[in-house]
Amino acid sequence: MKVCRSIGEIKSFVRSAKSSGNTIGLVPTMGYFHQGHLSLMRLARQECQIVVVSLFVNPTQFGPGEDLLDYPRDFERDIDMASQEGVDIIFAPEPGEMYPSGYQTYIEVGEITTPLCGRSRPGHFRGVATIVNKLLNLVEPDRAYFGQKDAQQVMVIKQMVRDLNMNVKIVNAPIVREDDGLAMSSRNVYLSTAERKAATILSRSLQGAEQAVNNGETDALTLRKQITEKIGSESLADVDYVEILSIPDLEPIQVLNGQVLIALAVRFGKTRLIDNAIVEV
Amino acid sequence: MKVCRSIGEIKSFVRSAKSSGNTIGLVPTMGYFHQGHLSLMRLARQECQIVVVSLFVNPTQFGPGEDLLDYPRDFERDIDMASQEGVDIIFAPEPGEMYPSGYQTYIEVGEITTPLCGRSRPGHFRGVATIVNKLLNLVEPDRAYFGQKDAQQVMVIKQMVRDLNMNVKIVNAPIVREDDGLAMSSRNVYLSTAERKAATILSRSLQGAEQAVNNGETDALTLRKQITEKIGSESLADVDYVEILSIPDLEPIQVLNGQVLIALAVRFGKTRLIDNAIVEV
C-alpha cells in the first residue's frame, strides 16, 4: 500500500490507474479507523479495481469550540488497518495542501443542510461538501463510499453530486455497531466508562421506535416523545435533537409515510454522538 | 455539427469522445454570438480534438431587475455561426434541465468576487461559478475558454478551478473589439445609435490610461480620476465603477506595480457595459 501526502502524487497515481482502464473507489475518512471505516474499504475492494482511502481531519467542517484539535488520531495504526483491507493508496495531506494560502471557494448545499446536524453545527456541511468535492475532483472515482451513521452527510453529498452533475456513484453502507448496539464512531474513545455504558441508550431508543412503528405507530410527535423520554431516563444523556424527517428531502413530517429518517444527536459530557434509523411505513 | 438539449445526450457524447482518446475543448457561452465568441471557438478548434460549445442563458447569474428576460437570443444564427467554426456539438439545455426542481447547490468564491461586478451585481459570480462548475463536470474538458472582456469572471473561474482541484486548464483569450474600439458584447445590441457612438468612450478612456502608464504615471488615484473624468465628459455615460486593482487578487492599490487590472462598468441608458485593460509596470 502506498501512502501519499501531496496533491501531485495522488493526481499522478490516479492518472496512471485510469490510463490502465481501472475503476476507482474512494473512501473519504478522517482516520482513527473502526469497523465502520473498514466495512467501507471492504465494499470498495469488492466493487472497484483500485481503492483509494483519504485520511484528512478536515478543519473546515469543525465549528469554533468543536473538537478539531482533540480529534483522535493514530496514523500508524490506520495505515496497518487499511493495508490489511487491501487498500491501494492512502492520501493523507496536510491542511495546507488542501487549503493553501488564499483559498476561498466553498460549496453551499441548501435546504437539506438546515435541519439536524446542520442546525446544531453551522457551517459543518459547507465544510463537508467542500472537502468531498475537492477529493472527488482529485481522485475522480467511479464510486465513493460513506457510512450511514452520518445519514444527513450521505444525503447532502448525494444532493451535491446530483446538483453539480458530478460523475460518481455515491454508495452508502449500513451502520456498524458494537456488540451492545452503540454505533461505531471515532469519537466513542472520548467517553468515560460510565458515559460509554449510558450511550447504549441511543441504539436502544431507536430500536424501541422501530418496534413502535412495526406495531403500527405512525404519529411522529408520539414517536419523538417516546424516544426523547427514553433518552431522558439516562441521566448522563443531554439531547441535542431527536427528529423524524422525510427521505430524501429531510422535511418535518407529522404522519409517517414511506421512507422516514429517525435521527438523533445526544451529548454525554463533552462528547456529542449521533445515531439514526430508517424506517419504512 | 450536433445540437443536443439534454444532460443524457451530452454525457453520452463526452463518454464516447473520451473513450476514443480525444481531447475536449469547452466554450461556455450565453449565445448571441459575436466575433469574441468565435475567437474562443477558433482557439478551441486549434488546440483540441473535440470542440463543445454550451449555449445557456444562465438564470442564476442574473439579479432581480437585470436583463435575463431581455437577453438577446438568436438560436438559428448561433447554430450557423458555430457550425462554420467547425464546432462538433452545441449543448443548449433548457433551464429546467440545469436547475431541476429541488436544486439547491451553489459555489461561493470569496474575496475575489467582492469588488467590481461582484459589488454591483450581488450573487452574479455565485451563479457564474455554479454553472461553470456544472458544465465542467458534464463535459470534462481538457481546456475551457473564456473571453478577457469579463476579466473578473476569468479570475473567479481560475480561482474556483484551483481551489476545488478541478482537472481542467482555463484559457483566456484577448478582448475582440469593433473597428471603433468598442469591446464586442451581446449587450451592444441594446444600444441606441447615440448610445452606441457614446460607448466608444470606454475603450478610448482605457487607451488614455494605458498611454499615461506608458508615460510613467503610477498613481492609481490620478489614473482613476483621469478615466472617470474622461468618461464623465460623455453626457450619455453613467459610471458604475472605475477600479484599478492588483492581479490576481483584485485588491485595491495605490501605486501601480507589476500586473494591474484597470476595469470599468458604465451604463448607457439601461445598458450596462464593461471593459478593461491589463497594464504592466
Protein architecture, described:
Two copies of one chain form a homodimer. With 281 residues, the first copy, chain A, is α/β, with parallel strands linked by helices. The first copy, chain A, folds into two domains: 2-173, HUPs (Rossmann fold, 3-Layer(aba) Sandwich); 186-276, Pantoate-beta-alanine ligase, C-terminal domain (Pantoate--beta-alanine Ligase, Chain: A,domain 2). Chain A has helices at 7-19, 35-47, 75-84, 95-98, 116-120, 124-139, 151-163, 193-198, 201-214, 220-232; strands spanning 2-4, 24-29, 50-55, 89-91, 105-109, 143-147, 169-173, 237-246, 259-268, 271-280. In chain A, the strands form two sheets. In chain A, strands 1-4-3-2-6-7 form a six-stranded parallel β-sheet, sandwiched between helices. Chain A has a three-stranded antiparallel β-sheet with strand order 8-9-10. In chain A, helix 6 crosses helix 7 and helix 9 (201-214) packs antiparallel against helix 10. The radius of gyration of chain A is 19 Å and the shape is globular. The A-B interface holds A 7, 102-112, 129-130, 133-134, 137-138, 140, 159-160, 163-167, 249 and B 7, 102-112, 129-130, 133-134, 137-138, 140, 159-160, 163-167, 249.
Shape, per Cα inertia axes of chain A: globular
CATH hierarchy class name of the largest domain in chain A: Alpha Beta
| Residue fraction in strands of chain A | 15-25%
Write down the Rg of chain A. 19 Å
Q: Could you name the CATH topology of the largest domain in chain A?
A: Rossmann fold
Secondary structure class of chain A reads: alpha/beta
Low-confidence runs of chain A (pLDDT<50, min 5 residues)? none
Biggest interface, CB < 8 A = A-B, 27 and 27 residues
- Helix-residue proportion of chain A: 25-40%
User: What's the total count of β strands of chain A?
Assistant: 10
Spell out the CATH superfamily of the largest domain in chain A. HUPs
Oligomer: homodimer
Written as H for each helix and E for each strand, in order along the chain, the element string of chain A is: EHEHEHEHEHHEHEHHHEEE
What would the average pLDDT of chain A be, to the nearest integer?
97
